[in-house]
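step=predict obj=Shikimate kinase n=173
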Amino acid sequence: MIISLIGYMGCGKSTTGKDLAKTLGYEFIDLDHYIENKYELSVSEIFDKFGELGFRKREKETLLEVLQKTNVVLSLGGGTPVYYDNIDVINANSISIFLRVQLPQLVKRLENKKHTRPLIAHLKDDELMEFIAKHLFERNHFYQKAKYTLNIANQNSSEVLNQIMEILKKEKI
Ligand SMILES: Nc1ncnc2c1ncn2[C@@H]1O[C@H](COP(=O)(O)OP(=O)(O)OP(=O)(O)O)[C@@H](O)[C@H]1O
Ligand SMILES: O=C(O)C1=C[C@@H](O)[C@@H](O)[C@H](O)C1
Ligand SMILES: [Mg+2]
């Protein structure tokens, strides 16, 4: 079984994914880190060298490879479900959970971490809100195709973990 976590940059996929894998005794895979190890380049370096399209091709190829595995918690990249037919492949091969965090919280979390995220690294703090608002508007359509959506207001990471475990009970995991 694979549990995949999807959602915008900063929604907590990596943090929550790690905790969830530990709780379930599953392997934890963060797709961004897996890509970085596989190509021996950081995500930012792949964007610089091959452009965003070059990153998306490598991301798709790596997604297909990782979905062959079993007993994995898979934290996807923020854009993974949005390109090609990725969301359909994700849903066909895993239980997908969308971590839906509201705009102000996302902006707050990303302000000091934007340098490692090439799509927002060039933005000034006062441009982040508008950029993310538009980006979410375009992407929500894909995120909402996840099997489950978890609305996260002010829950800390252990509360988020408990809510995911409730979902997984329904799935008999
Ligand atoms: N439930 C939470 N409440 C408050 N802060 C959180 C919560 N979950 C994660 N964070 C914080 O938000 C930031 C982003 O989290 P994380 O790196 O897990 O997001 P991500 O979805 O993996 O982002 P990316 O797509 O860019 O890799 C981190 O600083 C993390 O500590
Ligand atoms: O939202 C996105 O498109 C991205 C999110 C990150 O996880 C990385 O996959 C990369 O920075 C692109
Ligand atoms: Mg992450």
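step=describe
The two ends are 9 Å apart (CA to CA).
step=end
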